[in-house]
Amino acid sequence: MKIKFKVLMLLTVFLFLLGGTALTCTIIAVGKDAMADGSTVITHNDDSSVADFRLWIIPAMDWPEGSMRDIVVDSHNYIDYGNYPNVDIGNKGILVGQIPQVPHTYRYFHSRYSFINEMGVAMGESTSSARRELREARGMIDCWTIQDIALERAKTAREAVRIMGDLVEEYGWYGSGEIINVTDGNEVWICEFYGRDLWIALRMPDDCVYVGANTFRIRDVDFEDTENVMHSPNLISYAVEQGWYDPNSGEPFRPVDVYAPRTKGNIREWRAFDLLAPSMGFEYLEVHYPLWIKPDKKLTVWDIFTISGDWYEGTQFDLTKGFGAGPFGDPFASYTTGGRQRPIGIPLTCYLQISQIKSWLPPEIGALVWFGYGAVGTSYQTPLWPIMAELPEFYRTGSRYEIFRRDSGWWTNTYVQEMARRRFSDAIVDLRNFRDPKMETIYNTVPKIQELAAKVYETDRDAAIAIISDYAYNTAVAWQADWLKLGDMLMGKYAADRVNFGGTNYPKEWRDALTFINENFSTEK
Q1: What is the DSSP string of 107-168?
Q2: CB 185 within 8 A of CB 40
Q3: How many CB atoms lie within 10 A of CB 71?
Q4: CA 297 – CA 250 distance, rounded (Å)
């Protein structure tokens, strides 16, 4: 009877709740006093089933007087940026206008989103949704364009926020609302763009951590603190005009309550905060978590990488447990079959970028991104610098709409991810044993490489950039080769059920459940 009850319960949940959940992004921001090494960090899990995964370096450029910059809606959709600025958008984007170009633009990384420039300004995004009336308004500036332009023009996070705000105020927002986290090694800003020309940004305290998971969260604002608060001039007056806020109510103006009211908690926010500060004892059903918190201990990049790939392991929502996870505890199967909580780390992540900025180093040396394709829990991170001379070819190779390619970085990570799912509970041990020591070595090596390059930079800038460029290129190439070997090993060991040459060897609990289903739900008379 125990087995019968468990199976019936799981089948009921599966059949009733089968369906999809919007696969959108999670971001984290960490202040310099919350990091163990004094850097600042922003992240972006780019969760998408359609994203153009290719990675480009957009070069720094000087522009003649009178130059104009194209504004293209959907400009990051499998468009070739290999010969920038001679870019043919074809039918992949929509040219909606032009704005004056600045005399000089900076070098930056461009992928599904653009995320870090040579000056050490970095950002990520998490799509959110405000009032329907705001979503229906259509301006010229979408989330891709706004990040591109900010990274082309900003030397600091504060400048980037101001640039983005000015663009939205002048040209209007296009598309869904967005949360954008921005840093420069000193400051961290959290921006919310609601639609139309409405936005607000707050500077985060240096000892705090922010988590964004597709829900706007800026509520309590000291509008007198102009040093740490920026916003559109009509942020309050527009709400009053629309009858959404009564200034005579005695209630403070809270942007989220007015423009994107929340009615339920967000479990990803809860999980991240619970990992960062278990001492605070957050409840997962709370509607409003703090905008940011102080972590119980100072963080490392490894800590942030681990949180970014989390699937609730060890909690009551553990996706490696239960019938939905299959016989081998596959958290991705458990999530995608429906009826389970949406984790931070999902199988359709395009890439994770962890931008880490060290303000005490020259910008070109201190502006570093840890980059990796695919589901974070079954992927790796390698260090890249926007100033590096070139990227390995595998970053620009392939398409998710074409055949599998062993010379494509995204396809290689997808290969390992899917091979691990053949027998997840065993394969994830092999993967971590292979990956984690290598990542630890690189984590320990990168600061030394940066220190050496910074010393050389004092007398020879080109030689210093060559040091980090060669290290990043060679490390990325080595990872690609090693990850292919890992995928081949996992395929040979698990994909064809050749563990001990004895078939699938399902766990007893799973075999008992299947036996019960066959005996009680068989269609044969």
Answers
A1: -EEESSSEEEETTS-EEEEEEE---HHHHT---SB-HHHHHHHHHHH-SSHHHHHHHHHHHH
A2: yes
A3: 22
A4: 39
How large is the C-alpha radius of gyration of the chain?
24
> Considering the domain boundaries, does residue 502 fall inside one?
no
Torsional sign, CA 417, 422, 428, 432: negative
Number of domains in the chain: 1
CA distance 227 to 50: 39
Q: Which two tokens stand for residue 195?
A: 């639609």
Residue 233 lies in a domain: yes
Helices 157-171 and 143-153 pack at an angle, to 10 degrees, of: 130
Residue 140 lies in a domain: yes
> What is the chain's percent helix, strand, coil content, to nearest 5?
40, 20, 45
Exposed/middle/buried for 364, CB within 10 Å: 0-12, 13-18, 19+? Answer: buried
Q: How far apart are CA 195 and CA 239, in angstroms?
A: 13
Range of the domain at 426: 2-486
What pTM value is reported for the model? 0.93
Record the tokens describing residue 245, joined without a space.
Answer: 């806020």
Element (H or E) spanning 371, and its range? strand 367-373
CB 146 within 8 A of CB 93: no
| Sequence letter at residue 164 | M
Question: pLDDT 10s per residue in the chain (525 long)?
Answer: 333 333 333 333 332 233 333 447 999 999 999 999 999 999 999 999 899 999 999 999 999 999 999 999 999 999 999 999 999 999 999 999 999 999 999 999 999 999 999 999 999 999 999 999 998 778 999 999 999 999 999 999 999 999 999 999 999 999 889 999 999 999 999 999 999 999 999 999 999 999 999 999 999 999 999 999 999 999 999 999 999 999 999 999 999 999 999 988 899 999 999 999 999 999 888 999 999 999 999 999 999 999 999 999 999 999 999 888 989 999 998 776 656 789 999 999 999 999 999 999 999 999 999 999 999 999 999 999 999 999 999 999 999 999 999 999 999 999 999 999 999 999 999 999 999 999 999 999 999 999 999 999 999 999 999 999 999 999 999 999 999 999 999 999 998 666 555 556 777 777 777 677 777 776 554
| Tokens linked to 72 | 């293209």
- 183, part of any domain: yes
Q: Which helix (H) or strand (E) holds 98?
A: strand 94-100
